[in-house]
Design brief:
The protein has about 80 residues and is of the alpha+beta class. Helix content is about 30%, strand content about 30%. The protein has 2 helices and 4 strands. The protein has a 4-stranded mixed sheet with strand order 1-2-3-4. Strand 2 and strand 3 form a beta hairpin.
Length: about 80
Amino acid sequence: MKIEYPIEWDERDHLERPCKGWLENVVVTDRNGVKHQLCFYDPTRLNQDLTEELKNGKAGIVERGLLIVPEVSKDA
């Protein structure tokens, strides 16, 4: 499995990404060579974004390849 991140994961990313609570456009290539585009959210950020979408009259959040993780970090 190969993971391609849209960011460099430098020191700044290690500090800021968990605070932001989301990361999109992560590409995972499985052992068969099939690529999957993923989007990671932590529960807090997902709740904030969902609340905002509902306030704006939307029915919810639709995000292809959405994965909810305890923390958005390279280790997680």
